[in-house]
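#random but structural
TW: two for the price of one
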Amino acid sequence: MKLQSDITKNGRGSGKSPGAYEWWYFDAVDPERELRVVAIFYEGNPFSRRYIEAQRSGAARSEQFPAVSISVYGGGRTLYCSFTEYGPGEARFGQEGAVLQVGRHRVETVMEEGGVRCRLHLCEELPSGDALEGELEYRGPAPDPGLFAEAAGEAEHTWNLALPRAGVRGELRLRTPLHEERRLAFEGRGYHDHNTGAEPMKEAFRNWYWGRVHFEAGTLVYYVMDDRDAGGGRSREQAWLIASDGGSISERFVRVEAEDRQRTLFGLHTARRMVIAGEGAQVTVQHEQVLDSGPFYQRFASRAFLRLPGESAVQAQPGIAEYLRPERIHQRLFWPLVNMRIYYRAEGPHWVQRSPRLYRWTW
């Protein structure tokens, strides 16, 4: 995997091969209101049963399978969830990275003096009658493109921490099938990255944990990956504390260990604790609550505890963590569950998605 942190390389890639994918990921945490938001724009939706079938038939083109997924969590429960795959004519991904548009969802990125501004406009109405509309604005320092210079090189998967730390403000409006509306004011911190793959994810890695937490001292980013390129099934683990100005890495941790593994209903054996150690700083990340759980993926509400060298006090902050086992995406056994979750506009809604009560069960 190639690591970089360069907002100028945030545009759509070119020369796509069958099975290629890209996603632009945004998350944000508002500790005061206990809100978490995750929004992801995809080209070549890697979780799409339709895209996988096209790959098997030799007709796969990533631009034909754009999608957007949105999750809003409050007080530890899901307030809204959608995952919609659109048609190829309903998406626009600028090669400069300034504009992303899928359906009525849009991201605009503007370089400003001393920083970056990303404005997300989200607008979705589901067959169940649930709807979401609103804007979130991310403002943060442009990261130093040399932040991960030692990781330069070619790889089938590139992880670009395009905006690892930003202040986030905005409002989301949720509407239920009974036309009850809820307004959620949001003010917290957020994170944005851009992932690119030249082949299906299962060809590059077996398992992948990743997470981020914003402290006053900086932003913790970590991952644990069973990388097929590592040979012998070895795992790669790295973690950093990125300074609050995005210009340097204030702590490069030397050890990341996944502990306290628990078996899920779908047979995943996932860790609920990460112990991260550096020469001086120490972090423990607890995956306190499962926000989303499926046959190949989990998302956690996390809480991290940071102790810096020379400080007796421990800093504690909420975060978001995730786990993925990509080969399971290609197993037909799980596709009936995927079909309930992803709304394929080209096919029309699944009967579960038409029911407000049943569709919420998939959340």
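TW: number two ↓
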Amino acid sequence: MEILKRALESLGLSSDDKTMQTFEQYRELVLSWNEKVNLTAIKDPEAFEIRHFVDSLSCAGEEAFLDSKTVIDIGTGAGFPGLPLAICFPEKQFVLVDSLNKRIKILAEIIENLGVTNAIAIHARAEELAALPKHREQYDLCISRAVADLSVLSEYCLPFVKTGGSFAAYKTLSADAEIERSKKAVEILGGKIVETKIAVMPGLDSDHQIVWIKKISPTAKKFPRKAGTPEKNPL
């Protein structure tokens, strides 16, 4: 886990034995469960370390992340990027959301096994969860590595963010046209793209970027629309 250790140190984060053992156990648990349930296509240990751990942490040096106390991860899958961030920032509170109950049950067990107390896993569809007062516009930051067009992803994610908060979408460098197309949708949803930043981290190819979207006004209550509509008819 030398690459992860270097990444943590580059961010000024702890890379002590306890932290490294937690990440090692996390990787082992995911790969063990992966033999029964499809959690990741990445099975090589070093590639896992880079693509799941280092990539997840690539937002951690940014002011919008550092200033956030409450973070929600939409489409978290096996916990990425939320759980690696929760391990490194125990003072922040993380909610990890996925629509597949089987994955969330596994993730909840992984969180418990790791002894992480500042993250919870919730089984829900984003469009339903975002309608609940407990979650709507209650978070300083929403993060997502979900594979979806940014216009669609913004409709699912921005309703969770407080005015003044941020949404960080993990994208590849090939997504520039998609990002440009999404500006109208982001504006309709109360946001504004303020920055796209290439993820520069030890071991990580410079083919990843994070799109930082600022929430500048409340999202209209009609968003997100019912399941399937954002994909069929993007804003």
